[in-house]
Amino acid sequence: MTENRDNFNETYNALIERIVNLTLEGKIRAKSQVYNLLAEAVKNGTGEIFERCLTEKIIVTRSQLETKIKATRVLRALETIESEWEKYQKTNQKNSLTAAAIDNLVKIDREDRLLTLVNLIDPNQNNALTLEQLQQLAKHLQTVAQQRGEADLWQIATGINLGLNTWSNLSSYLTSWLYEQNRNLGFTNDNERVTPWQIWASKVNPSWLKRVLESLANQQAFDPLTQDLTLTDWVETAIVFQYIQRGLINFFDQRIYSEKLGAKLSISTFLTFALIWSLLTNSFEQVSKNSLYSRGCFQMALQILRTFAQRDYFPLYGGIFASFSGSYLKDALDYLSIPLRYVEGTGEKARILTLIAYSNRIRGDYRQARECHQQALEIARQQQDYACEIANLNHLSRLNAIQKNYAEAINLSQRALILSRQQGNSLGQANALANLGYSQVQEAQQLERYEPEIYQSSIEYLQQGLKLAESLQDWQSKSLCCSSLGLAYLILERPQEAINILLQGLESAKYYGDVYLQGLLLTYLGEAYYQDKNFEQAIYMGSLGMYWLHEIGAVEWRQAASLLTVIRGKNIAAFEQTFSLERSSLIKSIGLEGYQYISEILSKYQQGN
Question: How far apart are CA 370 and CA 430, in angstroms?
Answer without folding.
Answer: 22
